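Methods — Computational structure assignment.
A single polypeptide chain was analysed. Its primary sequence is given first, followed by the predicted tertiary structure written as structure tokens.
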Amino acid sequence: MLLLAVDTATPAVTVALHDGDSVLAAESAVDARRHGELLLPAVDRVLAGAGVRLDAVTDLVVGVGPGPYTGLRVGLVTALSFGSALGVPVRGLCTLDGLAYAAGLDEPFAVATDARRKEVYWARYADSRTRLTEPAVDRPADLAGTLAGLPVVGAGGLLYPDAFPDARGPEYQSAAALAALAAEKLAAGGAVEGFLPPLPLYLRRPDAQVPKNYKVVTPK
């Protein structure tokens, strides 16, 4: 197995290569405005660091969010393009699950990432491998009671310490963790089960929308 993982659902542009036993190479850069510019060079460096070519990749895993509209699509389109060119499967994983796995906690906790608009994307977990709720988007103040007493992993918790007093890292997604989680699922026979379709998990409409009074002009 040579599994390439990418995720652009958070401000981190993150890439990793996993051989089924361990991470061979990984790279992350935090820049919320340059996902499209940074991702492909990062893939090139990760492959070069592992000493392999892209056509040696046997599996692709991509974080499907939830995340902001534009950044999220960069990783998904890139993974799907690679999958089509190489003829290899592309599997999706929830970005929050990657953060939960990286946290390595064996107690109940939550993951929260920045959803902008003073909101967070979040989910609850029984441990680092077991998500209890579907991903959702809410205001931190509205979650203070729901997540009371729980550690909150991710940038969403760290941004709002009043609502999440036990906030902690990792702050952003790591493709190394996502790749390790995917390899673990595949080793357990989860070729389909346990993965998501490689489609964006938005949870809300994009910021850019057609004006309500927009008039369509058709040629005569």
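Note: The chain has a mean pLDDT of 92.
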